[in-house]
Amino acid sequence: MSPAPARPLRIFVVAGEHSGDALGARLMMALTALRPGVTFSGVGGPKMATAGLQSLFPMSDIAVMGPAAIIEHLPQLLRRIRETAEAAVASASDVVVIIDAPEFTHRVARRIRKARPDLPIVDYVSPSVWAWRSWRAPRMRAYVDEVLALLPFEPDVHARLGGPPCTYVGHPLIERRHWIDALDPQGLKERLGLTDAHPTLLVLPGSRRSEITRLWNPFTATLRALRATGHRLDVIVPTVENVRDLVTERVKQWPFPTHIIEDEADKFRAFKLAHAALAASGTVTLELALAGCPMVVAYRVDRLALVFRRLVRPPHFALANLVLGERAFPELMQESCVPEQLAPALASLLSDTPERARQLAALARVPDAITTGTSPAIAAAMRVLAHAER
Question: Does residue 310 surpass a pLDDT of 50?
Fold first, then answer.
């Protein structure tokens, strides 16, 4: 007699924001490819729905950012935490995968562990314990069986801090490298009416209203300082729908011709044709690196966030610097995020200077730093299956 077919695995997945939704969808597709018949339940957004998840409730209920917003929505968040944990326990799943959004997903995980100590829990995307609140790493051992890291240095960080077992699976951006390489920026250049008469500068103040508001004044003052020192630039601002109105109104203050774009492919075309970028710290620094665009990285956080975060000082803040293990790109944070420092740093990238050449050489090393040689989604799925089949 042939052996009975393996019981379909049940996987409970929890994502709390849009980036987690995209990661979760890729993970679900990889799991389905490796183990046909796997079923999913949990919380996610539209991309995870396309991959086969019927979310317990809209992900927008929990996609809340920043201490002030969390306090404002606390009753609803606490209710959703309780509902999600109870659903995970009742689902008789073989493994739980929590994805990013630690303020929500880790609270869910702690409740699950208390009710079902035998149920494996995998954390896909490590919290930034290398940047702030490092004490979270050892505490995670009580409710996380393994962390799947997107950044190559994170396993060593967890080992040093006494965190859970941590495996580097690669950054999902690397899966877009060939797509980015194939994009031709010439069509965008023609559509925007750009010429070679002036350098093109990208300005990336973030995708959330709070960070745009904090960075707008220093970014505007930086553009004015460049203009005052004789620079003539064309400016491109990639943005997203939820902040387009804010950006459209505020660019009227700027002293250079400014083009706003939203299309994802056009964003990367702009990254490829621009001479340099002034960018808010975040994943965009890795996107710029894959497109080969020199950059100056800047950021400010509000005072309330500083109190909540109990910030420590890692060697670098920009992800592109962190994956290289060196300060290849200027990082101008908090009191350094001022036009007196931002403008000269950008000016050194707008023509053929030694600084520009140095950055271009560093940019070429980033792709190898964020890959393991295996698709990140497949690598993550294999680790999830290892726990599900224990």
Answer: no
pLDDT of 301 higher than 80: no
Q: Are 162 and 197 found together in one domain?
A: no
| pLDDT at position 390 | 80
Q: Are residues 23 and 165 in the same domain?
A: yes
Residue 248 belongs to a domain with what CATH number? 3.40.50.2000
Residue 4: pLDDT band by 50, 70, 90 thresholds? very low
The 3-state DSSP composition of the chain as helix, strand, coil percent (nearest 5) reads 50, 15, 35
Residue 84 within a domain? yes
Tell me the β-bridge partners of 333: 299
Largest CA distance in the chain: 83
What's 42's DSSP letter?
E
Q: Tell which residue, 247, 361, 243, has the closest CA to residue 235.
A: 247
Strand partners, 276: 201
Q: What is the overall mean pLDDT for the chain?
A: 90
Asked whether residue 204 falls in the same domain as residue 109, the answer is: no
CA 107, CA 268: separation in Å to the nearest integer?
36
Q: How far apart are CA 128 and CA 322, in angstroms?
A: 12
Domain holding 35, by residue range, is 10-170+372-388
For residue 266, the surrounding DSSP H or E stretch is: helix 264-273
Please give the tally of structural domains in the chain: 2
Spatial contact of 316 and 285, defined as CB atoms under 8 Å apart:
no
d(CA 167, CA 148) in angstroms, rounded, equals 5
Judged against a pLDDT cut of 90, whether residue 271 lies above it is answered with yes
Give the residue-averaged pLDDT of 271-279: 97
Write out the two tokens for 328: 């290849």
52 sits in the region (left: phi over 0; alpha: psi -120 to 50; else beta) called left
DSSP β-bridge partners for residue 299: 333
- Residue 357: count other Cβ atoms within 10 Å of its Cβ: 11
**Three-state SS at 375:** coil
